[in-house]
Structures are given as C-alpha cells and as structure tokens.
C-alpha cells in the first residue's frame, strides 16, 4: 500500500519537556488513523509537526513522498484545528470563500454548495458564525477543510464538545470519505469512538505506546475496551 | 466580610500569578514616568545665525567705534542659543533648509540710529513652525537687549515658515494626526492578528499553501485601505473644524500618514507574534506607544530633550513622521525635501515586516 503520511523518529522538546518522543508512523492511503490518548499526551504537537507548522527538534516528516514543510503539499491537506478556527464576524459563505481562495479551489461556488450539503449546513450561508451553535461551528470548520477536495484530512479533536447524534454523523462522513480513498488522520481522547478507526496509535507522554487495528489490539491483549488497554499500558 | 475578602483575595492572587500583568502594573507606569522625565528639559542649543552688518558709531570723545550690536550678541545666552555668524542671504537659505531656527540681522546703521535717535531696528528671520522655539528666540533676544541698553528697539520679524500668531494647535495638529494614525494602525493590527491566533484561524492559515509574507501582505493591504481613509478623515476634520494652518500639499500629507501607519502596522506585526491574547496585546499600548509618543517631538521639541534622548528619538518612526508632516503642513515642503523621512519610514516598515516573516517562518 501507498504510504501517505510517514514520520521518522519525530521529536519535539519545549524547553526541558519532551512533548513528542521518537514517533515513527506510517499511514496508508484510504485509512482512518486515530491518534488516541489523554490531553497533553502530545497529539496536537505531533499533528502540527506533520503539517509543518511546528519545527521538529529531531526527525522528519514525509507526506505523499514529499519532505515537510512543503507548501505545495499543504494544498492537498484539509486541516481542522482544535479550535473552531473560523472568522467569527464573517458569514459562513465569507469564511468558505476566504479559505477557498487561499487554497486556490476551482469552481469555488459549486464546491461550496457541495461541502455545505455534505455537512448539512445548506441555507446557513449568509449567517454570521458568531450566531452558530458549537456543533454548527464544528460542521462549518469541517466543511472548510473539505473545500479543496484534499487527499488527506487531518482533524484535531473534531468531535470534542459536540452531541452524540452529530458525532455519529461525523463518523459517517469520515467513513464515506475513506471509502473514496481519502486518508484521514484524526485525534481524539474519546476511546469509545476510536473503535471506528481502522488503525489507532495509543499516545501517552509523547510516545506511541501501541499501534494497530483496535479490535485486534483488544483481542491480542485480552481486554474488553480501549480504556482497559490504555490503563494496562499507561 | 469574609465573602468580600474572598473576592478581593482572588483578584490579587490572579494578578500575582500572572507575572506579565504584575510587570505591567508596576513597571510600566515607572517606565512611562522615567521616559517622561528623561525626555523633558529646557529648550537649549537652538541654532541661530547672526548677520551683523552694523558699521558702528564713532565716539568722537574717545575716537573709538561703538558696536551696540556686538554687545547684544555678547549678552545672548549661548547655552540656549547656539550662535553662528552668517551672511543674511546664506542664513535665510539655511533656515529654509531647516539648518537653523532663526537669524538675527543688524543693519549697517544699527549703532548709529540707536545712539543718535535712540531707536533702532533688529531684523529677525524666523522659522515660526514651533511657537515654543520661536518664542524662546524672541524672548532671549529681548532679554539681551534690555541688559545691553535702553532705547526703542523694534524687532522686525521675517517669517520663513509659519505665520504671525502661530497657534499651538497649528503646531500640534500634524504631530497629533501622526500619533492618532500610529495608535490606531498599531492597535488595529495587533488586536485583529492576535484575535485570529486565539480563534485558531491563524493556525488554519499557517497550514494552508500561503507564505508568511503573503499573509502579512494581505493584512497590510486591508489595513492600509482603512489607514488612508482614516488619515483623510483626520486631516479634513482638523482643517475644517479648527482651520489649522495647511500650507503644503494635502495629498503629500496623506501619503506621509499612510507611510506612518505602515511603519506602525509592521511594528504591530512583530509584537503580535509575542502576544498570546487580546489582553496581552492591549498591554503593549502603554509599553510601546506612550513612550514613543513622549520622545517623538509631539508635545515638546526634540531640541529640548537631553542629548541621549535625542539620539533614541531618532529611531522612533513617530519622530520622523511628525517632523515630516510638520514640514509638509506648516513649512509647505515638497516630496524631495522630506525624502529622508520617507526613506526612514519606508525602510522601518520593510525591516519589521521581514523580521516578522522570518519569525513566523522560524517557528514553522
């Protein structure tokens, strides 16, 4: 299989704190890879290094075979940061338009309609983001990351702070996207929803302590849930 | 009462834990007062020319020539006025080029008229841009005359720049306009930049195929449009509401205010990369803007500041923009005459933009 995201011995130090410790990952095309672990475990730091926003202390990142940071590669990545990352006092349409232009999206108007339909925000185009609910903001943020029709989606805690029905529909979106060959890297500290991933990496104190298919991991270590697994290896 | 103290205690503890705010509360006021104290002083060392054409008066009793003009010059306070002998024409040209603030001219019959008719005329060529400077020169001259001898002296003023009865508002307006545009450009930039950092928009932009330089350029264009509109409103309000003295070109003044805004925007970019949130961003106002305001010759002339502060003042973009704006508004200078200030402001802006771009890139 084609390796889409690859990190080699990634390390990041903030002063004396080792936020990411020697992480080597390979994520194949079309996979949903879940980076699982507690808050402060180094997930966001790892993601920021993968995107090339943060300079690693040591190690390398390759995306689609290109060494990061590479601005051209960023065109093929839809990134959804942890915060809503929207212009609060712009309308949804204006937000989409801004990022669409930045990413050089072709047929922007049509693409905007497509992604809004996909996330179920049709009819809200002219509403200010500040009037949106938390869940709507998450959907709007997701729609922006879909805008350039990226090959890779990097989603940092996309389901945090949203209600269960929306979480379910989010996972439906992810699976749908994975089916058409999109590679998805997702972080979450919700161990239950992590079972939806095809592969997970359990991250704690900057290290990936376990890696593999979630169901196989449970079987292999004879535990009932990822929580038990996590407690066992913590 | 316990409840009340609980509230008070939590507030004080909050400040105590936030070392940055603590620093702002105690250090910044001291700093501002110190800058204020260091930058104020008496006006001194004003460059004034003396053009003495006085042929003197022959005292028949002693056979010696009397030069009252020389005595007057002798009695001038050399600490306040930095005198230099110069031909009248040359002096006038030099004043036009801002190489001096004034010239005291004694005509050839000065001593003769004074002794025979008990009245004489002194010509004072003056750059009347700053009322405080021109008043200092006039009062120093008067003082010295009184000290020298009694008589009817007429000081005939010839104004190279400015006008008779130059009001303080006429002098202050250009500096205040520059200050207003600088403050607004700085705060607008820093607050919106930091706001996007907090909301995560900036993070998303960083992870997009746009370069740091393009990001900054985008900001710059948007804020420059606002800056130009705002500058025009400022200038128009000042001229229409207070009828300020506007001698030079309106559009050149506008261009200067725009450049000044550019310099402060780029300064703001650098500082916004140091601020975590809007709160911290707002704290830069007393730390950066107020000291700059104090040392930039807005309220008192740079010439009145102690030597070391004058040197520091040269690095403030506001010093250059305020002076250039006065040059245009009051002195009626043209583009070529303020090119030095324009170049300074331009490169100041470029320097900080590049610095910020590098800063953003290094973090990546």
Set down the secondary structure blueprint:
The complex is a heterodimer of chains A (about 230) and B (about 375).
Chain A: E1 3-14, E2 17-28, E3 32-36, H1 43-51, E4 58-63, E5 66-67, H2 71-74, E6 77-80, H3 92-102, H4 108-119, H5 134-146, E7 152-156, H6 164-179, E8 183-188, E9 199-204, E10 207-212, H7 214-220, H8 226-233
Helix pairs in contact in A: 4-5
Chain B: H1 2-17, H2 19-39, E1 46-52, E2 57-59, E3 64-66, H3 68-75, E4 81-85, H4 88-96, E5 102-106, H5 110-117, E6 119-127, H6 131-148, E7 152-161, H7 168-199, H8 201-206, H9 212-242, H10 250-272, H11 278-295, H12 307-313, H13 317-329, H14 339-363
Helix pairs in contact in B: 2-11, 3-6, 7-9, 7-10, 7-11, 7-13, 9-10, 10-13, 10-14, 13-14
Descriptive terms for the model:
heterodimer, A: 234 residues, alpha/beta, Rossmann fold, six-stranded mixed sheet, four-stranded antiparallel sheet, 8 helices, 27% strand, B: 364 residues, five-stranded mixed sheet, two-stranded antiparallel ribbon, 14 helices, 7 strands, 12% strand
Total helical segments of chain A: 8
Mean pLDDT of chain B: 89
Structural class of chain A: alpha/beta
Assign an overall shape of chain A: globular
Radius of gyration of chain B, taken over Cα atoms and rounded to an integer in Å: 27 Å
The percent range for helix content of chain A is 25-40%
- Give the topology string of chain B: H per helix, E per strand: HHEEEHEHEHEHEHHHHHHHH
Number of domain modules of chain A: 2
Write out the strand line-up for the largest beta sheet of chain A, numbering strands in chain order: 6-7-8-3-9-10
Q: Report the span from N to C terminus of chain A.
A: 31 Å
End-to-end separation of chain B in angstroms reads: 52 Å
The low-confidence parts of chain A are none
CATH homology superfamily name of the largest domain in chain A: P-loop containing nucleotide triphosphate hydrolases
Q: Look at the structure and give the mean pLDDT of chain A.
A: 90
Biggest sheet record of chain B: 5 strands, mixed
State the total count of DSSP E strands of chain A.
10
User: Per CATH, what is the topology of the largest domain in chain A?
Assistant: Rossmann fold
CATH architecture term of the largest domain in chain A: 3-Layer(aba) Sandwich
- Main interface: chain pair and counts: A-B, 25 and 17 residues
